[in-house]
Design goal:
The protein has one domain: Metal-dependent hydrolases (TIM Barrel, Alpha-Beta Barrel), CATH 3.20.20. Helix content is about 40%, strand content about 10%. The strands form three sheets. It has a six-stranded parallel beta sheet with strand order 7-8-9-10-11-12. It has a three-stranded parallel beta sheet with strand order 1-5-6.
């Protein structure tokens, strides 16, 4: 007889439903960009795996090497969820491609991915771009950059669809780099059934992403109830800061990025800056149907972030509010409209206790990348065993479904 779960009970294993809020494509090749990218952009902006002018093989934009692309290891991929072993091997001076292998069909094809979800016991997933996410920091933040992202969206629509079998939800790419292009792209995506988009973090064209100038774009997403994500990636707006400190951006994160850049210019701080700016600009008063998630930036930062947002609201009570004073605490707004995908190594129990709810925390396997867990269900064993079942289930399943309005 199945064990009956009681309120507040902690279980040794999780056998409930799963909705994975962080999974990825592996791009088989980039011939699709040659097909969709306008010919006038090929020389400078075509993305391809090749040997560059300096003799190095890897992912290139034009003739410029993308330093953080996984295919720079001769097209091999690290085994999913093996980050600890990978880092240990690197610490011991071993090659970071030892144990790497060829990508499997489920990383590249929607039908095979659906079969993999069934094997994993996963009901549905949000599917992000693969190594292409490492290119964001290289594109010009203007209409040209928007054209490159549109070419990728053409591939997503044709090859994966934006809601494959209503279980695999590919994230359309949408930037605010050019207003007219962003309006057109948002409409194009919505017309093709997109349910979730991935956007570069930070400002655009010297404006807050929540500046009313961009409201026509947000209105399209709001009306269609499209979810928005900020996935970890290169934060272009941090590059001037990096240079001011005498360092160089766009270096290999594994061998060339300094500890200071890791701490302040990548991952959680850029997304905090972005999300706080959106909340302080009274964004959700104008667009109450939009939900925003931070993905692959962890969640340990959330409690202190909410505490500080509330405190700074008080400090700026008589200050300048670009879009009007907030009617309630920023933390309350965040908990209603925003989410964060936790890392498996996060103190999720501590996060939940400090913010008083599990409702804005999501799980993500990061499959098939090395940084996450081997299988989505392993997230429970890594991060959630100290939580009562109802909170663990919320993080493993219910919150993701609610974020996606499924």
């Amino acid at each position: 007889m199945a064990k009956v779960k009681t309120i507040g009970e902690v279980l040794p294993t999780y056998e409930g439903p799963i909705f994975d809020c962080d999974s990825h494509i592996w791009e088989r090749d980039y011939d699709f960009l040659r097909k969709y990218l306008p010919q006038d952009l090929h020389a400078e902006w075509l993305v391809a795996r090749k040997v560059g002018p300096d003799g190095r093989f890897g992912l290139h934009i034009g003739d410029r090497m993308v330093e953080n692309a996984e295919s720079n290891a001769q097209g091999l991929v690290p085994p999913p969820g093996k980050l600890k072993e990978w880092l240990q091997a690197m610490k011991e001076g071993k090659s970071n491609v030892e144990g790497w292998g060829l990508p499997t069909e489920d990383m590249m094809e929607p039908a095979a991915r659906l079969a993999k979800l069934d094997e994993f016991g996963v009901e549905g997933c949000i599917l992000f771009v693969g190594e292409f996410v490492s290119t964001f920091g290289y594109f010009p933040q203007d209409a040209t950059g928007a054209r490159v992202l549109h070419a990728y969206n053409e591939y997503l629509h044709e090859h994966w669809g934006f809601a494959y079998q209503n279980r695999v939800f590919s994230t359309g790419l949408l930037s605010l780099w050019d207003l007219e292009a962003a309006i057109a792209e948002a409409r194009w995506l919505v017309e093709r059934g997109v349910r979730v988009v991935c956007m570069p973090m930070g400002p655009a064209g010297g404006r807050s992403p929540a500046d009313p100038y961009f409201d026509p774009v947000w209105q399209i997403l709001n009306d269609a109830k499209v979810a928005v994500t900020f996935h970890v990636s290169e934060a272009n707006f941090m590059h001037p800061l990096i240079r001011e400190f005498g360092e160089t951006p766009l270096q290999s994160r594994r061998t060339g990025q300094t500890a200071w850049q890791w701490m302040f210019c990548y991952s959680e701080l850029p997304v905090q800056i972005t999300m706080a700016n959106i909340i302080y600009h009274n964004f959700f008063e104008r667009f109450p149907e939009i939900r925003i998630a931070s993905v692959e930036n962890g969640a340990n930062w959330v409690p202190s972030f909410l505490e500080k947002m509330d405190k700074m609201r008080g400090m700026a009570k008589n200050g300048y509010w670009p879009c009007g004073q907030l009617k309630e605490r920023p933390s309350a707004i965040f908990k209603r409209h925003c989410f964060a995908v936790a890392y498996p190594e996060d103190d999720v129990k501590g996060v939940v206790e400090r913010i008083g709810t599990a409702d804005c925390i999501l799980m993500g396997s990061d499959y098939p990348h090395a940084e996450g867990v081997p299988e989505p269900r392993d997230f429970y064993g890594e991060a959630l065993t100290e939580l009562p079942y109802e909170q663990a289930r919320a993080i493993m399943y219910d919150n993701g479904k609610r974020f996606m309005r499924l």
